Request: fold
Amino acid sequence: TATSIVETSSIILSFSSNPMPIPPPFAYIQLTADDAASTDAQHVGYSNTPTVIASNPGHITWSDGAKQFNVSAAGTYECMGCITFEGGATLVTCKVNKNGTAVLTVIPRVHSTVDPVERTVRAIFTAAAGDNVDITYDSNSGNTVKAITGTTVTLKRFYVKEVEIEIDNKLLRGMDCEQI
Reply:
């Protein structure tokens, strides 16, 4: 390994970009009514119409019919659900899905003797324009469970800025790596 810089050419450092509006777009849903209790896998908000806030509908929208967010631009996204559950007697499978495939699965305990309980699921992943994102939950048993009023799901896009720096090595000559 080199201990000092002696070349006289330039170094160019590049960082990738993900052009997007500032502030970064996000969309948010909140249940204002309880989902119907179910023993089957369900989308958060499957049996009601949640309140929706979208900062930039040109980038992220909510499809109430499909109960999913639709993204219109490629990028890195974070989906977070704060789900308040009622019912159940065992573990509940919660999934953050992209195009119907889980990018994260968590299996928290939910039990009717201590409900309601809040469980959080959060995933960071890349998505392409046209992808859809949702959160589902499944009681994994014959016991019913439901997401109740106050449950929220947020999808937001991360901001990545492109930067290119050119450094003339003459400025670095004689410096060791720690000094740079």
About this structure: The chain has a mean pLDDT of 85. Residues 18 and 160 are 5 Å apart (CA to CA). The chain has no helices and 16 strands.
